[in-house]
Amino acid sequence: LAILNHLELDKKNPESDRNVHRIIEALKLAYEDGLKYIADPRTMEVSVEALLSSSYAKKRAALIGEKAILPAAGNPNGSGTIYLCTADSEGTMVSHIQSNYSGFGSGIVIPGTGISLQNRGKAFSLDPSSPNVLAPGKKSFHTIIPGFLSKDGRAIGPFGVMGAFMQPQGQLQVLTNLLDFGMNPQEALDRPRWQWLKKKEVETEPEYPEEIRKALALRGHEMSINPNHNVYGRGQIILRNSDGVLMGASEPRADGCAAGW
Questions:
Q1: Angle at CA 160, nearest 5°, toward 101 and 208?
Q2: Mean pLDDT of the region 112-131
Q3: Among 189, 257, 186, 188, which residue's Cα sits nearest to residue 229?
Q4: Using CA atoms, how far apart are residues 167 and 143, in angstroms rounded to an integer?
Q5: Separation of alpha carbons 11 and 14, rounded Å
Q6: What integer best gives the mean pLDDT of the chain?
Q7: Does 102 score more than 80 pLDDT?
Q8: Using 50, 70 and 90 to split pLDDT, how confident is the model at 74?
Q9: Res 30 pLDDT > 90
Q10: What average pLDDT score do residues 61-71 get?
Q11: Rounded to whole angstroms, how far apart are CA atoms 218 and 213?
C-alpha cells in the first residue's frame, strides 16, 4: 500500500491491465523486501518504520514502469549523497557535496558537533599492487565531486550531480548539454541519461530516444533500460550569465529545488 500511494491508478476502470500490472509490480517489490528483512522484531536489522516510510516507498515505486521487472529487495536503511550550491549578488559562490557513504557512515560522531564521520575507507583495495591499496594516512578512491565552472578566470557557477559511480558520468552529460549543445540549466538536467556499467554494457532511462538506443546497439554497445531514475544521478546548478543574472535549476530525479531571495 505504501508503494501504491506513489502510483496513479485509473479509478474509473478498476480491472484495466495497467492497474493490475502496477498492483502486481508493487506486490512483487514488497514481497522481496519482506522475504529479506522481516523476522522477529527483536532480531530485525531494519526497522518497520524504515520499510514503511514514504521516502523509501517512493524509491520503490520509481522502479515500476510499463513492463514487468525481475524484483529485488531494496535498501530501506539507505545511504547517499547530498549536493547543494549557493551564490550571492557579491559574487560569492559555494559548491558543496557531502556523503556518509553508507548508512550513518562510520558511526563515529565528533564530540560536541553532531558531525558524523563517513566510512569511505571501505572503498580501499586489499590488492597490494593496486594504487588504491589500504595504507595509513591515505585517502581512498571516491566520487565526491563538487563541480565549478569558470571561463577566462571568471566564475560562472557551481554545479554537482550526486550518484556514486554515476557522478562523473552525469557531470559529463550535463556539461556537454550546457556547453556544447547550448541548453539552459534546467534543460541540461532534465534530459534523459545513459549510464555505462562495465565493458560494453550501457543502460538508459526509459525516456531515452529509442532510435538512438537502437543505433548505439548497432555500434556494438550492449543496451538495456533501467526504469529506476535514482541511479542516473541527481543534479543542481547555479550559473551566472554575461549580464550577471543568476540562474538556478534542480532536476526532477531528486527532492530538490532552486530558490532565490
A1: 100
A2: 90
A3: 189
A4: 7
A5: 6
A6: 91
A7: no
A8: confident
A9: yes
A10: 88
A11: 9
Question: Which residue shows C-alpha cell 531494496?
Answer: 74
Q: Which of 235, 226, 238, 240 is nearest to 254 (CA)?
A: 235
Residues of CATH 3.60.20.40 domain(s) within the chain?
81-115+143-193+233-250
Query: Domain 81-115+143-193+233-250 falls in which CATH fold?
Result: Glutamine Phosphoribosylpyrophosphate, subunit 1, domain 1 (3.60.20)
C-alpha cell at position 182: 547550448
Q: Quote the CA–CA distance of 166 and 176 in Å, as a whole number.
A: 15
* pLDDT surpasses 90 at 143: no
> Is 86 a residue of the active site?
no
Cell numbers standing for residue 220: 556494438
Grid cell for residue 115: 558531525
CB atoms within 10 A of CB 204: 20
pLDDT in tens, 164-190: 889 999 999 999 999 999 999 999 999
The Cα–Cα gap between 256 and 69 comes to 28
Cβ atoms of 202 and 173 within 8 Å: the answer is: no
Looking at residue 70, the DSSP 8-state letter turns out to be: -
pLDDT of 78: 63
Q: Read off the pLDDT of residues 204-222 as tens digits, 9 standing for 90 and up.
A: 999 999 999 999 999 999 9
pLDDT of residue 79 exceeding 80, the answer is no
Residue 101: is it exposed, middle or buried by C-beta count within 10 angstroms (0-12/13-18/19+)? buried
Dihedral-angle region of residue 244 (phi above 0 means left; psi in -120 to 50 means alpha; beta otherwise): left
d(CA 26, CA 23): 5
From 81, 113, 143, 204, the catalytic residue: 81
